[in-house]
Amino acid sequence: MAKLFMFEKPLGMRDMLPHLYERKNTVRLLMEEEIKKWGYQFIQTPMLEYYETVGSASAILDQQLFKLLDQQGHTLVLRPDMTAPIARVAASRLLHKGLPQRLAYSGSVFRAQQREGGRPAEFEQIGVECIGDETISADGEMIALMISTLQTAGLSNFRISIGHIGFVNELFTQILGTEERAETLRRFLYEKNYVGYREHVKSLLLSSIDKQRLLRLLDLQGGQETIIEAYNIIENERGKESLEQLTELWNVMKDYDMTENIHFDLSLISHMNYYTSVLFEVYAGNVGFPIGNGGRYDCLLKKFGKETVATGFALRIDRILEALGEWRKDSPVHCILFSDERRKEAFNKAAKERENGKRIVLQNINGVKNIDDCTNEFSDVSFLIGKGEKEQR
Questions:
Q1: How far is CA 358 from CA 119, 334, 339, in A?
Q2: In this record, what's one Pfam family (predicted)?
């Protein structure tokens, strides 16, 4: 094993310097306040969870989990997502109440990377979970809240793609007959490998009509008319029920007056395999990956002993910052340069300014090698220097 360099970090880990930290914190606080306005309560879960519980319940691949052993020999994982830990908390401590639980979170998740590739192994998510509400209104609330949260963060150029995993599964099962053959096509869709999907469909021993139905799935993208077109390729009732749910969802979003940013993509597949019906991803300009995703997961809480439905979404804060582009500091930082002779005066002045909401740096002038560095760094500089110091400088 090669010796590590002095400043080398583990694969996929990143430092966050002051400017980026401040920007992230500002955006996160804005989103948190908007989520609270919708009645969601924030909770916090541990970074470490048992592999046998949260680790195995998570939809993240096993090779992406960070694992370690505790002193008793139990395998632990750094939490790979936030939904599974919150499902654990809700199943064990919160579901004795009759009303649906509206929970929110903001925290880091960890996913091991095989190679750098620009992808972080640690990133922060902010999101919500609505547990115990089976209605389409709850699914619509997720999308509406996500739109409102992104707009509050300052993002306007984004699009939400909505699909239904139940529709895709019913179509594949109906035509292909086996789960193994269906999984092959689902993998092509998840990887957005539409060329591979088409070539694979053409190679299947199916009728020309069934091949055409599978190929038409890729074209089912757009507005409300997409749902109408989808009825032409599905035959069984369960598949049609999925389309009825999407129709109802569209009507919910119309009542929110929030259809401008959404469109349907009935070929949508998520890497989170616990989704059971409606699912969605959000994309923004200048970012090549989804900045968030969500959907309904009605079976996850069964793994923790509770028969309860749920829906939610998660947003990637790092990708939101990337989508927002350049950022200017809204709160300038002021500097007070003082000498030992006028130290108390400087301290009192800084305290008053901070009470008025200003951000103040106090700097002893003897600790500054070049005053020009201060004038370049801060929005303005005040001098509280004794007479002797002035003459000396």
A1: 37, 8, 21
A2: HisZ-like
